[in-house]
Amino acid sequence: MEFGLSQEQIMLQDMTNKYLAEQVSLERVRKVVSSEISDEEIWQELTELGIPGLMIPEANGGVGLGALDAAVIAECLAYHVTPSAFLSSAVMAPVALIAAGKDELLAAIAAGEQRVGIAFGETIGARREAGIAVIGSVLSGKCLFVLDSQADHYLIADKDKNLYLVAASAQGLQRNNLTTVDKTRTTCELVLDQVEAEVISNDPAVYTRSLDLGRVMQAADTLGAAQSMLDQSVVYAKQREQFNRVIASFQAVKHMCADMVANLEPCRSLVWYAAHAMDQVPEEARLMACHTKAHLSEVGKAVAKTATEVHGGMGFTDLVGLHYWFKRIGANRQLLGSPELLRNEAAKIQGFV
Amino acid sequence: MDLSFGIEYTNFREEVKGFIDQHQDKQPSATTESMTAIEWQKLLIDNGYHSRTIPKEYGGFGAEPDIIKSRIIAEEFSRARINTGLGGQGISMLVPVLLEMGSEEQKQQFIRSTIGGEMVWCQGYSEPGAGSDLASLTTKAELDGDEWVINGQKIWTSTAQLADWIFCLVRTEPEASKHQGISFLLFDMKTQGIEVRPLVDMTGSANFNEVFFTDVRVPKDQIVGKRGQGWQVANAILGHERGSLAPPEAAKSRLEGVIRLMQSETIGGEKVIDNPVFRDRLMSIQGRVLAMQFNDMRLFSARINKGQSAGMAGIIVKLMGTELRHELEALAIDAMGEIGLSYEDNPYIRGEGSWQYLYMYFLGLIIGGGTSQIQKNIISERGLGMPKEPKVDAK
């Protein structure tokens, strides 16, 4: 019996963290955010580490690893607020593309040549401005908060959980960037006017697995971002002096840090088990995905606030840049289902609704 | 990640289930057919389901330590809701200490009778002036010939009114620094000069007592460890106590109780669980219970796979576990509304009043065994390496 990461997973984690610490500095993140450089540049570097093809079968040029390995990577990427298309291209899209046998596209994703964005908004808390109408395989309407505004293709869900693939260059498709607080990952709207799409799946289970896997990865992303904010807070508190003492010696500051640890540490085990369940305990996978993303969203929100406060006025500045993590945690909370929606779904899964 | 225990343990689990099937009718209860608590305890020890790793020569079962087997026993007894045998501070805290630090005579004299249930203990640690700052305790013991003469007062002493003996921290070296001047003594509660006064708490029960010592004379050799080593001995046991105050399995079982309650109770004809606000609170608590359950599995795994890091998973358990239970019991009370206020002889009471009782009792546990604020000091100082608050010069 071993509950935790394997030796290989710990090596993967160390290697990825080492790489990101050296290559994805906050200075470089700022350049992506201000569009000085494209996030594609970082995506190409991640391709050398095998990250886009992490969950794609080896037969398609991928690495063929599982959900827990992907969760480890998601945590590392968020720890360094890495701009990337990991959630959409490396995690959510491959689920459907593997089920549909889209070998060429999978190989192109693994090689870093193509990216696939995700447009599941129709099925998760759709807002009044959005809506897709489907006639045969022709799509019209609007998708909001689509993951990855630079993708080559989009995987679109209709309200019956069918999945369609459209090329970003398809006739009748208009793509508009949607600015959000989190500029480390991009979102856009797709306006479709009778766009010819390829049907990828009519099996709701494919959609559901893709969504659940995405939710677990967002929870892992929040874990990494929150851990970074906690670590930065402790370092800062040990350096910053007021009243002739480091502020880390004040009980008020210590208790804020202790609260962050106490809330965040059990989250690690929760994320590990939820990822494990995706591959090994299918009967618990859906419930775990909902609970894990909901719980991490709540803890993440509290850590993001507390860590900013520990930094005092500096935490509020752009100079320190803590806000990149704050906003990433905020985005993870809303995308693919807010905590209230997820808890309602958890209740439904257990037959309480 | 590998959550299987292997064939040896599958077989062991079957053995445990077999024992439960065969003997569960005999567990102590109000009926005349059942065994007494002492007889049941003996049956459990003889079969290795209590005092499993305590050597045979001291009255235990004498098995090699195997925490997977211990966990399987706990899981199966809990699943079948079977009496797990005697507990209390003598068994859970004193016996481990005696095994580690007691003299051969002390082991012979105390362990068998303690685990057998013939000898009940209480713990004399806290004092009116020494709570969070336990090391400042002032109950003193002075050597007079071959006897310690003890004077002072203890508080928060659970089971003192029932206890045969006490394990007690006293100041024996007034000249030494506060942590070096304490000794760990054992003595009979029937000794002349001991007065026990029940301390009624907010639950309405006397879960604790005050104990007063006036010239209590105790043989010199009834000391565990050497003079002045009492603090190290006490810390060894406190570590033992903290993790066990709020086990996640109990939280899971209480959560199932809240779910059943919310499915059966109604507000204006509507089931409580159909109310979206209550349902959201329930799901929120369930998420937290799951987090603590898997945190516990990580700790368990780190114990069996030595060398695997549990990070900060252990140091946060007392703080998080007790706070969670307090809120979980509170949710059940809110779900019942006015009915949730029922207490003692109220005919509308649910769950024999356990929701209100435990709601208050867990507030006691948030404070006892090192308050939540002391836990946060420990987490930030030992866990995060943050400096201690500068000391204020003693008066």
Structure description:
The complex is a heterodimer of chains A (353) and B (395). Chain A is α+β, with helices and mostly antiparallel strands and 353 residues long. Chain A folds into three domains: 7-110, Butyryl-Coa Dehydrogenase, subunit A, domain 1 (Orthogonal Bundle); 116-202, Butyryl-CoA Dehydrogenase, subunit A, domain 2 (Beta Barrel); 205-349, Butyryl-CoA Dehydrogenase, subunit A, domain 3, CATH 1.20.140.10. Chain A contains twelve helices and ten strands. In chain A, the strands form three sheets. Chain A has a four-stranded mixed β-sheet. In chain A, helix 7 runs antiparallel to helix 8 and helix 7 (204-239) packs antiparallel against helix 11. The two termini of chain A are 36 Å apart. Chain B has 395 residues and is an alpha+beta fold. Chain B folds into three domains: 7-86, no CATH class; 121-229, Butyryl-CoA Dehydrogenase, subunit A, domain 2 (Beta Barrel); 245-383, Up-down Bundle (Butyryl-CoA Dehydrogenase, subunit A, domain 3), CATH 1.20.140. Chain B contains eleven helices and ten strands. Chain B has helices at residues 7-23, 37-46, 67-79, 89-101, 104-115, 230-243, 248-264, 276-304, 317-336, 354-367, 372-383, and strands spanning 121-124, 140-144, 147-155, 165-171, 182-188, 194-199, 208-219, 223-224, 266-267, 270-271. In chain B, a hairpin with an 8-residue loop joins strand 6 and strand 7 (208-219). In chain B, helix 1 (7-23) runs parallel beside helix 3 and helix 9 packs antiparallel against helix 10 (354-367). The model of chain B has no long low-confidence stretch (mean pLDDT 92). At the A-B interface, helix 7, strand 10, helix 8, helix 9 and helix 12 of A face helix 8 and helix 11 of B.
